[in-house]
């Protein structure tokens, strides 16, 4: 369904980087969910460029709620969030239409849309579109939090520097929510930022891995086959620009484990069924088992770099060298965090709405 | 949509391991695709238990085409494939209803279906269901091959032993199609099988990584946001039992690259736009760029092991030790290959049908 | 989605009239719904040819439940119903491939499927396919009845003879369930059958109107816009072969009413909000208001008649006269009743599953 | 899918009558469709209140294209149309929350949304939402017209006065496009308007029937079962507020025909396969046969009337008498025409996009 995702609760995206606005429509929301504009703004601020390690483009991310909210609560009808664009410098991009940037979607957009696409700032492919996703995610995160479901993402690794892992899930998640550069170990974070600045100085960029934990999600949600929790989550996570890998629980490390080490033994914890380990990331057979949901996303280094790159002049039909000036991020891992949290919230809210009905997330 | 996946071309699954049959319905197929029952049988044979390293359960996998085929070609109406079950030993499983097997879906099935699920042999969660997927995939693989689109999957790593990578894509893919134990380096394959046998002897199991390459897929197919090629493929790949990670191109290795190393420079090859490297796995911005599509799946070790395991007796509400007897696979990596090929074919056929219309794959 | 319909609860159809079988897959069923094979057989018997006024083709309609049922109850996983074909006389149809029958889908099938369709007995277009729909509907009707939701359809008019309208909804619906020729006024029914026999004797056929009432359906279900109850119901009702019109409440008669006569005044009945009249057929703004849901379907006369008809010989490219021999129904209105009941049940069960979650219809 | 409809080409609606705006997102549009704002404005003007026979609420219907358009053509990415609200008098409605208007969705909205709905002006149920549908429809109508597909709707009957039927389809359709009060016989139109004014003077309202013809639509489009052309069209047509009946071709009149009269004989017309009559409205077995598509919609009289009406005070739990003041339409039949044209265009464009691929409507 292209720009609409979800079964019971859907999100629809629209917009281009340098057009009038980007936006999202949420449909299937329960009525009665509190909509706190300050909370949405906070989530948007976590996606915004950060200090010296981000693009110089400064977006206010002022948003408007065009529908679906009345007296501060969701109505149960479609909620449209609009984020008008500002501070766009379209002149930066016009020349690039025939000279596709390596690692970007310029060439594939041209092939798919036959030149009718809006090339300015990446058009509809722009990560600008994720501002709408983050705002949409914030609306459902409020509802999830009222059910005791918390989502937290940290930089598992960036530019070769590892963060420490989750230890006290709830405390760690609350810590991350307050940090624009989301690490659990501030010292590791400092080293990462140094490496990012150094890459920026070289006209280069770095990548990393994000790790997400969800606590409080009830067991028995998800589907055995196509709409497994892993399937639904990965579908959306791969929509986050630059994500090229997704793994649940031990993920690729499972490949080198034996079954006796990989299986999570069941146990009782204060009368509750738990597992002694959580190598499966809270999901068995596509369905939540009540343990924390845990997954990681690989984020590739930003393809926009100022170092000269070999590419083609499609019109001339010959090789050329491209130097991207403009304003770019030497790293998007920390900014992608807000998007990962948002799409996770959207998927989980969809699954819960299908499982427990259309009133559930409104607390009715 | 639970057990139905796809937009223009959908597959719907049904069946339980020890019920009368498993099956699949393909809808949205072009009319006129040749249906070769021998070819389907060959693909099913690649999924079948293999030598000493597989379960002793021997399934004939005899299939019936109940609809959608007339005079040896698809009609354009739904094609139902039925695979009757045989050689089922239900007695093996009845005792396990209250004693969930670690790493399996027994507990989550119980939580979701409140005890109404069919527990015999894993019921609807059983990998037996993948026989229907493989048969369905075989139908569309014929159509893809007529378009010059070839899919091949090898064991990238198993039990710690690596295979060599793809070198000559077309030749390698053709080689893999003929090998029930799909490796490119037969010597590495021999070592893997030894390790699997050793694990089996210990009552244990091993995991691995599968790597898939698709050649001949046209550029300009896929979507910028939710229905990106990565999103659609991963959604289905995570439906393959035991898959816990999916990565495209360099995947998680991107995390430690710089942008200057990660970007694929564009170049010309006999007048065609290509990229000098293929670190992005043939996909930019969710859309195919004409290079080979490349991805890897992490396959966890089979959770059914005969070693004693700690678990719960849910009825008694106390810890117990489980010894699984029955017939089980010490490794499913090689058998999962056929399923990965099948779901890849199903997703790509869906994307092409949406892109070029409902007659395209029939060659009309 | 072609042969799959529904949001939370879907039905997928497959099969051809003279192929091995027709069938349906129900997905999204709650676990725990009792599956009574006798009840399904009863519903199928209401669709079967009836006495002198139906085709001489006699189908046993033996069905098999291939999946999704365990210990007499739904498991919550896909339920596949298979109805093998028998008593097929394919020779009757082969000649008709190039000589399309007026009023049938022969010509449009040829145009859409380019000659690859199965022409025998109408192939996938055959009303034979509705046997699978009726069986699928019966499964969810059981669940609806346990919630106090009853569905009844009578022949509102046939061959110009009117039946009386609903008077005592519950008693009338129960009466209809036991009558293979579904009229409320048996005398009117007798006259209808005479007219049908007379048309048959003339080598002709007759049409009619079916009227359906649903009682016990809760208020507040349905959607304001595209998935209004009217939209969802009509979508499925127009899938019933020969249905060419659908109207809710006063329907087309609204055109000649004034607002003051058309509006249903609200009132209280034993503390319950009701309306004094029910001209809107239980639906306002696409959503149920708690009053009986009421609609009518126009059923065209069977296009298969033995009278000579003008048509084309497509191969020769010239006019010809067609005489259909074979075995045909001079009227399908009474048989269509079972299909209308079934698709109504499927739509309402889908709406309830979405509204109240996936356990609701299992009574969990 | 609630507020999203379509398979290959979808439309998503959002907005409330007295909120900031109503709008629609079109997704799946081909790239390269010319977007003519004047043409969209013209279509919107056909929906606008007309002379003395409409509400006094005057809306400018100024619209903004927020995305999906670049250099005057569609880009192939989602197109969002926004229509800001103006001239709203919310005070008119606040009192009505607990006193539901008969024939309206006030009560069902309350039941479904538990009081969280926006009650002002009908909120999301308001016909105001159809302005967005009309604008969305206009975008695809341009593409259809470039393919020679023309859509025209006239008032078949209003307040008991009949219009003449279609005679010269193309000329008649072109005539209708230019008439804000869409009749083929201007004299009949004059009589209708007199009857409407008379009803208005009495504080009452009238209903009617709309008849739609589509010419130039290719044969072989549509599906045998659930996504039949009738099923898809009716699904959307019942979303048009006040529509309570839909019939194709002879529709309910089929009930009293014999098969020999109802069947459309095939014939040749300048080498083209045609039918001598068109009683099936251009559709056989759910698929277009190349003849004009013909259907009619029953439109109920506007429920908002100034005559006193019996209803309930839900809070007090007692009967009361309601006098609606505000500004209302004594008839919406003529205004509904633009909406019927729009949803018809949206459905047909969706069907064509699925059939011929995502470039087709862009003429690529």
Task: Name the descriptors.
364 residues; 5-stranded antiparallel beta sheet; homotetramer; 9 helices; alpha+beta; Chorismate synthase, AroC fold; 28% helix
Instruction: State the share of residues found in helices of chain A, binned by percent.
Output: 25-40%
Average residue pLDDT of chain A: 94
Helix-strand pattern of chain A, N to C? EEEHEEEEHHHEEHHEHEHEEEEEEEH
The count of strands of chain A amounts to 18
CATH architecture of chain A: 4-Layer Sandwich
- CATH topology category name of chain A: Chorismate synthase, AroC fold
Task: Tell me the distance between the termini of chain A.
Answer: 30 Å
When the domains of chain A are counted, the total is: 1
Rg over CA atoms of chain A: 21 Å
Q: How would you sum up the major sheet of chain A?
A: 5 strands, antiparallel
Biggest interface reads:
C-D, 107 and 106 residues
Quaternary status: homotetramer
Shape of chain A: globular
Structural class of chain A: alpha+beta
